[in-house]
Amino acid sequence: MEAVVLAGGFGTRLKGCIDNIPKPLAPINDKPFLCYLLDYLYANGIHRVVISTGYLAEKVEEAIGGSYRGMTVEYSVEDTPLGTGGGIKKALRKCTDEYVVVCNGDSFFDVDLFEMRAFHIKSGCPVTLAAKFIENAYRSGLLDFKSGRLCGFSENGIAPSGYINGGVYFIKRTLLEEIQEDKFSFEKSVLAGGYDIGVYESDGYFIDIGIPDAYKLAEAEKDRLASRRKRCAVFLDRDGTINKDTVHLYRREEFEFLPDADKAIAELKKKGYLVTVITNQAGVAKGLYKEDDIGILHSYVDSLLKEKYSVIADGYYYCPHHPEATVEKYRLDCLCRKPNAGLIFKAVEDFKESGIEIDLSKSYTIGNRISDVLAGKNAGVEHNILIGNDETDENGVASAVYGSLYDAVHNIKQVF
Ligand SMILES: [Mg+2]
Ligand SMILES: [Zn+2]
Predict the structure, then answer these.
(1) What is the pTM of this model?
(2) 58 Cβ contact list (under 8 Å, min separation 6)
(3) Which of 209, 222, 236, 376 is least buried, going by the fewest C-beta atoms within 10 A?
C-alpha cells in the first residue's frame, strides 16, 4: 500500500513550543513526531510513502531521507501553498495504487489500515475517512453519519461527545483529477463536495499534536504512539534465488538479478508482505570478503530495487560463520547457518521489537536449496518453497516447487 503524508503545516498553533521547524518534526522524547507516524504506516502495511511538504520542506527531507525502514520515501513539494486538497492532488500524482492512504502529518490515529482498506473497497466510495469517538467534543466539529456513510458536519460546541474526523483517509488515486483547480480545500471541495464519503469507525489511540496541550501530553503518552500489528513475511534466499550465483559474490559489478526476480520482490511488497533476505555467507569465514562488503552490496541491491520499482527490502540477514573457517572468529557450528533457523528467528525478533508480529502460519520461505526449505521448516514457517533446477525435492520436504522466484510469487495471494 502507498501513503501520502501531509507535512506542509506551518505549526502556528505550536509557536512557543517549537520554532523554526515544521510541525511534523516537533520532537516527542527526542524523536520527530513524523517518525512515529512513519513507524505506524510501516506496521500497517505501507511500502511506499510520498511526503507532501511546503513550509521548510528541506528540513523534512533532511530528517527522513529517501527511505525509512522497509519503505521508500519520496517528496512532493508545494512551492506555493495549494491548500489541503491541492497538496493531496499533487502528491497523488506520484502514486500508482488504485487507492492511497492519506494522513495528516501532525496527528496520530492508530487505525488498522488493513481493516479500513477492506471496509473502503466494500463501501464502493471514492473516499473513506476514519472516525474517532471522543468525549469533551465541545471544541471539535463532529461528523454526522449513518450506516457507514457521511451525511454532514455539525458546528463546534453543540454536542458533549461524538465522532470527529481522525484525519486518515483512503482515496481513489485519480479522484482529485476531476477537480479543475490546483489550489483548493479538501474539506470543502471533497468532504463537503457532494461525493459519497465512507466513514470507518476506529477506537484506536488518537492524538493531534497541533494543539499545544496535546503536544505536551504526547510526551507522557509516547508508548501509545505505536501500532501493534500482525504481518506476513517472505524470507528469501539470496544467491541462486534473487540473483545469479557467481559463488562468493560480494562485488557490486558482479551482482545480477535473475530474470524478473526484482519484479517478484516488488510484487511481494505490493501484495502486503514483508520481504527479508536470509543468506549464508561463508565467504566471510573463508576470508574472501568482509562483513562490510556484504552491507555495501545489500545497500546496492536496495538502490536497484528502489530505482526500478520504488521498493526496498525489509531487511538482510546473513551468517558469516563456517565450521571449517580459515578466519578463526567465524569458525563455529552456529545456529544461524541454514538449514538452521537462527537468521529467521532474528528477523522475527527484530520485527517484534518494532511492534510487528510475524504470522508464521501465513508466511513463506523461498530458496533454490533444500537447506533454505529446511531453515523455513525449522523456524516454523508454514510455506517453504523450492525454486529452480539446482536441487530436487527427493524427500518431499518443500510445500511446492516452482521454476523461478517470479513463478512462485505468482502463486502467493494478497495479504489483504
Ligand atoms: Mg541459494
Ligand atoms: Zn552463523
Answers:
(1) 0.94
(2) none
(3) 222
